[in-house]
Amino acid sequence: MEPLISRRAIAWGGLSFAALTLSRCGHAPDRADPNPDVPEAFRASGAGAAAAWPAEEWWTGFNSPELNLLIAKARRQNFDIAAAIARVRQADARLRIAGAALLPALNGTGSGSWQHAGLGTGSGGARGRTGTTASIDSRSYGFGLSAAYQIDFWGHNRARQDSAAAAALASRFDQRTVALTVTANVASLWFTALALADRLRVARSNVADSERTQAIVRARMAAGTASALDVANQETLLATERATIPNFQNQLEQALNGLGILTGEPPERVSVRPGTLTALRLPPVAPGLPSELLRRRPDIASAEALLEGSGFDVKVARTAFYPAINLTGSTGFQAPALNALINPGGFIASLAAGLTAPIFDGGTLRGALELARGQQAELLADYRKAVVQAFTDVDNALTAWRYTSEQEGLQRVAVETARRAATIARAQMLAGTADLLSVLTAESALFNAEDTLAQVRLARAQALVGVYKALGGGWRREMEERPELTPGRLKGGVALPAGGA
Fold first, then answer.
1. Domain presence at residue 127
2. Per the domain annotation, does 364 fall within a domain?
3. pLDDT (tens digit, 9 = 90+) per residue, 198-221?
4. Which of 26, 225, 297, 436 has the smallest C-beta neighbourhood within 10 Å, fewest atoms?
């Protein structure tokens, strides 16, 4: 007997030593160092540019009450934003579920039973039987508590909770990304409606000018100083300009209808009507250091949080190889009668401990570990891509803003020149010193120049919206960080470059 006890003691000692050794390995999650390539300055702004990050409500800087109203509706009623908020609630619920495994499970129990047994006694011969019957009733009652708890020796359940916390944090960042995208889309589509209204006014103004010219040409034809060809040419130009109006009206109505889905209401309830793009105030913004952008883009923050969570997912898969230690216990009272239920003689209690360890699973655990590591590698690539994409978005938006601003200035000069040419051509035609072809050419050039100016103004306004969006729309990571949503209380976390932490 003694050798057997010694062998058991040696086995338990070896198991304890192995457990302690493995536990030291199990508490450290596998974190990936993204090491993003962060430039010193944005290519389109220069190293010495002063920073002017967007305000949180950046759209108010355009000085458009209609735009403010539309964005307020969108932030309250947009379906994509509502769905993103619902995903935040789901992520919070998963975090609560994951955290429950760290606490013991406690259940109440109650029971009651009744049993009836009939007993018969008697005597008799071949002709008959006589006797008496008796019965016994038995009752039993009991109540108690049962508890179960898994000792999180390796940090398995804690890693699950930390992974869920990272996912909950990422869901908040994703919701902010959706809100920023919706806000930018509303502004861009509203500016499109304003530009189409401007182009419609330009077309109608040119139609009115062409109608006046047509009246002059017909009067000259009646006087014998103009030919039927001159009248036909002017009518062709007038018909061409009239044909552009339905197209602009169609695009304008579709742009206003598009605002309906963004504001979460049918297009019939979109009551705002566009004014003019020229009334907008376009306050420019400028980025600071590229490293600071990492704290101002919610999509980057989401990619970072998911990457952080993947390290805990790897830990969950790794600690699944280790033994699980479970404790169960119960206590309560049991007695044959209610009035004798709670007494020292009716007290019962039990306590048990169990250990289970995987021995052979056909490679399931190894496959789960490799899957978690593969997902971590994918999220690492996604994070690096998000960082590079953010820098690209900022440079593209700044470049578009700079060149569309320059183009608008040049196009204004072109419009003024074309307007002077058209005025001179009409005056010379009235004086009889210019032919109709010169007037037609000048009026066509003026129409094209004014229409192009409206399109360039739209491109410039949308480029500025792109700058606001690329810079994060006034969002900062500090607005979302909460201690209860910090994985591992985010000790360490994903390494960030200097200026991005």
1. no
2. yes
3. 999 999 998 998 888 888 888 888
4. 225
